[in-house]
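Q: Could you fold this chain for me?
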Amino acid sequence: MDRNDLSDALAAPSPFADEEATRKYNSDEIAEALERFGALLRTPMELSVMLQSVCVQMVATIPTADMAGVTVLSAAEKEPETVACTDARALDVDVDQYRANEGPCLESARTGQVVRVRIEDAAQRWPAFAANVAGMGVGSYLSVPLVTGVDHVGALNLYGFSGDGFSEIDEVLLQVFVAAVEGAIWNARRAEQWRVEVEGLQAAMKSRARIEQAKGMLMVLHGISAERAFEVLVEQSQSRNVRVAVIAAEVVETLTEQ
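A: Sure. Below is the predicted structure, expressed as structure tokens.
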């Protein structure tokens, strides 16, 4: 998004924010903030540190945001977890959502839809959640989904103490941060998949080497062929209901000690 686009966005009407709220934005300041955000993304850091830095940058960039957080759904069980936030109160709000199993960030994370509500709307849509967070001082919520491919992985969340609500401009700016976070989460999950695959391959290679070593020892000890040595290992595996690799490790350990 260039500065002309930002100027157009700042001039757009919003059903949630009045003109005074809209004038809180300055296109040059926002452009500079996004440039700083770009520099942040180019800095090598762990995913958890990067997500925390993104939350801080969101609050610094979006005037109506008093707190920010990142909700991530676990890859397998789809259980929600707050992995970064700027304020302990944001974490408390998230935990109450998880307990009630309803709320803006959960709805956004699970449906892939933007959720932008004020506190009175939240009370109507999620009464259990609204009852839990009553008195925490949060008057406005904005959650934008995090999606990688077809997988809903979580949501980026803003919390405002004002009850005026977030604007369409806030939503547009939050989408910029979302794109970066989605890429970082995708890379992290892909790296984890690679790690598991490499560890599995290493374990398989180690097991294969141990089986070959056990076969060689049995061949020398009993004067049998490689095929017969492997049959011996398989027979022991079946009779004891234990993997061949485990039998091979026992053979190697036993014969080595003799």
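A (continued): The chain has a mean pLDDT of 78.
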